[in-house]
Amino acid sequence: MKKAIRLVLASEFFILVASLYSYELFINAQVAFLSALFVILGSSFAYAKMVDSQVASEAFEDKRDFLDEVEDPHGLYDDEAINEAPAEELDLKTIVKEERAKIKTFNVKSLKHGVKGGASAFRLAPYLFLVLGFIALKNNELLNLAFYLPSLSVGIIIGALSAKAFLPKT
User: Fold this and answer.
1) Would you state the pLDDT for residue 109?
2) What is the 3-state secondary structure (H, E, C) of 38-51?
3) Domain limits, the chain
4) What is the pLDDT of residues 5-23, one digit of tens each?
5) Longest dimension (CA), the chain
6) Separation between Cα atoms, residue 91 and residue 60, nearest integer Å
């Protein structure tokens, strides 16, 4: 954690030194760096909080590996036993009903889950800061993308490294 704080403070020091070069460089770097840092940290904390709550409530599903889903999306090569009964003995109506029950549909519960993950204050506040900072720079004719975009990428890198240090190890 100390390493992450030192990393952020060192970055802020370099941004402060940039103010000696020009105010435009300083303000673009500061807004972009803090925006990216807050977005990455906020998203990381919100995601960790959502995962912890799902694990605590035991409301998660045992999913197949991602590569398994890509290679075999319908589970054709699974090791599950297949009904070996002759076609005459199969009740197709019950099979179709069972398969339809397996299909996930859009409902209020899935909407609640999606909104809960995306509407976290940890996620919304940093994006609001990003948008308002960009608009403020543009309206005051201070926006210079040659300074803004590299500072945004530095903020993303520092945010990712800091998020690793701040998040609990499970």
Assistant:
1) 62
2) HHHHHHHHHHHHHH
3) 2-59+107-166
4) 898 899 999 999 988 999 9
5) 85
6) 32
